[in-house]
C-alpha cells in the first residue's frame, strides 16, 4: 500500500491571493494538517469551517528548527502510511520556495519508496518582495533561510533575500552574521507581509536591524542589495586574487609584477617571513596582519603566474590544501581515534605513505633550524646591515 501526501501552498498573504482551484480543494477536505496556524489564509478558511490541525506545538517542544522539521516530517510520513485517504499538508507561500519540510518529505519518500508526494501551487512571496524593493530578480539574487544561515553562504556580489526573520531576537542573530561580510552602515530592507497589494518596508542601517521589534512576524524577510562599492570588497578573497591577476597581466599589468617568475620571487618569501618573525616577537598584531598579508601576496603572485602560464591557479592551490588537511586529519574529519601525539605521528606517517611520499633528506628542516638559531642570536643585537652581513659571514661568531 502506498500512502500519499499532498503539500499545498497557501500563498504569501491573504485569501485574495489564493488560486480558486486550491481554495475549492481545501474546502472539500475533512481535515487539513498545517505547519503553522499563523497565516491569514488559514484564519479565513477556518471561519468557513475548514478543520486544521497544526504542528505549532512541535515548535514549542523542540530545541531547534531542524528538530522541528524532522518531527513534522516523521509524523506526516507515519500518518500517510496508516491512512486510507490522502494526507493534506499546507505551508506558507509556495511549497518549493524556502520550505524545508517539502525538501525533507520528498527526500524521505524517495528513500522509503512507499509514500507519494504531490505539490499544489500557492503563490511565492518572491515576486512581491522584488516589487516592494523595486528591483529585477533577473539581476541575480541569493535566497537564504535565516534558521540555517552561516556566513560562508553570504555573497555580497548579488542581491540577498533572507526569509523567516520572525522576531527581533532572530534579527539580532542575523545582524551579527551579516556583519562578517557587510559594513555596519550597509542599508538593509525589512519587508513584512509582501503581497499583491503592497508590503510594509523599513530601510535601516545594518547595525539597527533588530531595533524594529514591531515589524517582525512569520511573514518577514530581510533584503540586502548587492554591494557596488569597491572598498567593501577589500576583505574578499576573490577580489584580492583579481588584483594580483591584473598586476601580472602581460598587457595591463605592472612593469615589475608582470616580469616576475617563480625563480625571481623566491627570496621575497624569505624576506617577508623574517618580517613576520619580528612582528610575532614584538607581539604586534597590526604588524602581523600586514606581514601575513605580504606572505599571502607571495602565494597569490605564484598562483597568478601559474595561471598566466596555464599550469595552475589559486583554486588548485586551495583544493590541494583542503584535501591534504582532511586526508591527514582523519581523527577530526573521519573515524580515526587519537589520544596521544604518538598516535598522530602514526596517522600522518600512514597518510604520507598513501600519498606516495618517499623518504628523503629533510634539507628544509636543517636550513630552518640553522636560520632560527642565527635569528635568535641576532634579533636583539644593535647591528646595521653591513655589520649583520659580516657577522653571518663569520658563521655567527661575533668575536
Explained architecture:
The protein is an alpha/beta fold. The chain has 15 helices and ten strands. It has a five-stranded parallel β-sheet with strand order 3-2-4-1-5. Strands 6-7-10-8-9 form a five-stranded mixed β-sheet, with helices on one face. Strand 8 and strand 9 form a beta hairpin. Helix 9 runs antiparallel to helix 10. The relative contact order is 0.07. The mean pLDDT is 92.
How would you summarize the topology of this molecule?
Blueprint: E1 3-9, H1 20-27, E2 32-34, H2 40-47, E3 52-54, H3 56-61, H4 65-81, E4 87-91, H5 100-112, E5 115-120, H6 126-133, E6 141-145, E7 159-163, H7 168-178, E8 187-195, E9 198-205, E10 220-224, H8 237-248, H9 266-281, H10 285-309, H11 314-327, H12 330-333, H13 341-354, H14 363-378, H15 385-393
Parallel strand pairs: 1-4, 1-5, 2-3, 2-4, 6-7
Antiparallel strand pairs: 7-10, 8-9, 8-10
Helix pairs in contact: 4-5, 8-10, 9-10
| Net shape | elongated
Largest sheet: 5 strands, parallel
Class per helix and strand makeup: alpha/beta
Instruction: Quote the average pLDDT.
Output: 92
Spatial gap, N to C terminus: 94 Å
Q: Using DSSP, what is the number of strands?
A: 10
The number of helical segments is 15
Work out the strand percent. 5-15%
**Spatial order of the strands in the main sheet?**
3-2-4-1-5
Low-confidence stretches: none
The oligomeric status of these chains comes to single chain
Query: Order of helices and strands, N to C?
Result: EHEHEHHEHEHEEHEEEHHHHHHHH
Radius of gyration: 30 Å
Report the helical percentage: 40-55%
